[in-house]
Amino acid sequence: MARITASVYTSHVPAIGAAIDGGKTGEPYWQPVFKGYEFSRKWMRDNRPDVIFLVYNDHATAFSLDMIPTFAIGTAATFNPADEGWGPRPVPQVIGHPELAAHIAQSVIQQDFDLTIVNRMDVDHGLTVPLSLMCGQPQAWPCPVIPFAVNVVQYPVPSGRRCLNLGKAIRRAIASYDDDLKVQIWGTGGMSHQLQGPRAGLINREFDNAFLDRMIADPEGQAAVPHIEYVREAGSEGIELVMWLIARGAMSDCSRGATGDLAGGLPPKVVHRFYHVPASNTAVGHLILEEAKS
Ligand code: DHB
Ligand code: FE
């Protein structure tokens, strides 16, 4: 059966993508950011998954105000890097996993989460920047990627509780797929940032670090935090952080008490934690949690 081996969490700042593509990672401004991901790139090489289930948000790129799915799963065979106004990023095409994606859609919808099924879309910096941070600049991404887009751009956005429970449902879906695949689940976006209005430039280190603590040790507690507190404390774009709860809910310790056939497990192992301010207008946060070996 397929199984989740680890979860990865990272910001997706578009300027990081531009720095990588423009060969600027060694510049004094960027050097400390990329230093925080050196361990991660080695860890990715040593712990190569068969599939990445990548939770991210589209920034009015594939979806406009014409159509706003709350949760959308990419079931296509390929996804092209989007043109966000400066031409597509010079990164590999994303290869999907239509069979596993279709299975997850079937299972998760039958667990009462309404997913939009997307058979064609381009993927923006929300998806490609995390891949670049974790994998560098390869000719091809190391494995197939299933894009899972969450609406955190146009209100109403999903609650933290719903995101955590969705992660639990995704775990059950992956555990019922009849192929021996190692799957990583990534939660991306955040950390604190606000890009417009009188509070533009807001960064809240205290909130961010408390969030990282609770992502590790108290995801159920973090799931109870209402969306308005993210906006108040972490800025209007800080709400991207609720997506991390989807990845966290898919770890085995969160399945405790959930309906279904999984008994619950040990807390995950923290193999990497990184926090840096600033990158563009944003605080950069990053965690790697490995599934506990029981
Ligand atoms: C920035 C951060 C984001 O998450 C984003 O989607 C766009 C811009 C920034 O910090 O500039
Ligand atoms: Fe963003």
Describe the structure.
The longest helix is centred in the middle third of the chain and has 16 residues, at 160-175. Helix 1 (14-21) packs across helix 5 (125-135) and helix 4 packs across helix 6 (160-175). The protein has an eight-stranded mixed β-sheet with strand order 6-3-7-2-8-1-10-9, sandwiched between helices. Strands 4-5 form a two-stranded antiparallel sheet. It has 294 residues and is of the alpha/beta class. It has one domain: Protocatechuate 4,5-dioxygenase, Chain B, CATH 3.40.830.10. The protein has helices at residues 14-21, 31-35, 38-46, 98-110, 125-135, 160-175, 205-217, 219-223, 227-234, 244-249, and strands at 3-10, 51-56, 71-74, 78-79, 94-95, 116-118, 145-150, 182-188, 269-279, 282-290. The chain contains ten helices and ten strands. The chain is globular, with a radius of gyration of 17 Å. Residues 12, 59, 126, 189, 237, 240 line the site of fe (iii) ion (FE).
Describe the secondary structure blueprint for this structure.
Blueprint: E1 3-10, H1 14-21, H2 31-35, H3 38-46, E2 51-56, E3 71-74, E4 78-79, E5 94-95, H4 98-110, E6 116-118, H5 125-135, E7 145-150, H6 160-175, E8 182-188, H7 205-217, H8 219-223, H9 227-234, H10 244-249, E9 269-279, E10 282-290
Parallel strand pairs: 1-8, 2-7, 2-8, 3-6
Antiparallel strand pairs: 1-10, 3-7, 4-5, 9-10
Helix pairs in contact: 1-5, 4-6
